[in-house]
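quick one before i forget lol
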Amino acid sequence: MRDAASEQPSVTTDKDILRLVRYVATHAPVQMQRAAANVTFQAGDDRPARHFPQSALDRACSLGLTVVDEGVVRATAQASAFLRRALLAPEEAFQDQHRVIEARTVSVEGARQTVRANQLESPLGAVARLKEKSGQAFLPPEAIAAGERLSADFTRAQLQPRLTMAYEPRLSAKTRGKPCGTADLCDTALAARMRVGRAMEAIGPELCGVALDVCCFQKGLELVERERQWPARSAKLMLRTALMALARHYAPSASAGRRNHAWAADGYRPDAGDLVVVRPQAPGQPRP
């Protein structure tokens, strides 16, 4: 018995099936009337009827793309994935149905190049696409930039657990069985670990965990809620709070380092007990 997925039609040979599934998916529910070798679809009173071969409807139903119930044709959950694969390039059809490609301009060795980036590559990219009820983005740009910077530092710090065997030769002089320590790390990794540590201190112990899970360990919001036993749709609020604190850590406001001056009233004199007198010390004389 052949698998149903292997029998899915291509764009060039079964265009009737593609047009039928696309029409049903965009105009559901559709009323159907059979007439000889053709079927007539009527999506509404004010819309013209469409005619499709009966064989195309039978093939779509056998593949699980459409269902017929008392003269009404509806598209199944597999129809959306089938349409995305059929309308994309054949060499990237299966990959593009699970990703959102965006063109970006990056600097590579001083030259600007246009690359394609997948917005759904990380859970942070999926959260960045969320919208408020007002239509504004759920995460501001500075919060997204802070999360990407934390992820980059985490990768440079070599804190990601290794899941496969390392085949590169070891150049360090550690003995067999001794775990790799900070002496085997380069200066770049050590500096990145210090930056990650300072970022966690800035976020705080209550919120640093969700930032690490989403930005560094690539966990989805639903997985974070299940692991931490949080209420539904609460992880995105905690993540936004953590990333806003992280954004202030990476880019503090101009008033954060400004020193405030206080003016004393007329006749004010400091208390002599608050003053510390430092006398010069002769060479060789012990400290008091």
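fyi The beta strands are 30-35, 38-42, 50-53, 66-69, 72-75, 101-108, 111-118.
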